[in-house]
Amino acid sequence: MLRIDIPSTEDITITTWTFNEYGLPKPHNGTANEVNGDLILLFEDEEEAVAYLDELEDFATKLDNKSPAKPVINTLITAINNDGFVQAYLE
């Protein structure tokens, strides 16, 4: 199982509730929460993570730049793109 950490920042805290609030697609294997409050995206493997990344990117293109969901989805996309296992899979 591949776990991708979405760290909370001063500006953005993403929780499982955030997906419902903004109507964002959820990972097929769901999410978990770290003790420190960070959100963890759960994937079966790198292929599934990349498919979810594509889904998020498609969703992001439909959002207005001023949408409150834009920084949230950009944070998710960046975290998945920066994951070492995902980067190795894409090479």
Structural account:
There is one protein chain. By secondary structure, the protein is an alpha+beta fold. It has one domain (2-90). The chain is built from 4 helices and 3 strands. A 3-stranded antiparallel sheet has the order 1-3-2. β2 (31-33) and β3 (39-43) form a beta hairpin.
Briefly, what is this?
The protein has one domain (2-90). Helix content is 47%, strand content 14%. It has helices at 16-22, 46-61, 70-82, 84-90; strands at residues 2-6, 31-33, 39-43.
Cα-atom radius of gyration = 12 Å
Distance between the termini: 20 Å
Query: Unreliable stretches, pLDDT < 50, 5 or more residues?
Result: none
Strand percentage, roughly? 5-15%
Helix segment tally: 4
Shape category = globular
Structural class: alpha+beta
What fraction, in percent, of the residue positions are helical? 40-55%
Order of helices and strands: EHEEHHH
Strands, count? 3
Largest sheet: 3 strands, antiparallel
- Mean pLDDT metric: 93
> How many domains is the backbone divided into?
1
Salient structural properties:
globular; three-stranded antiparallel sheet; alpha+beta; 4 helices; 91 residues
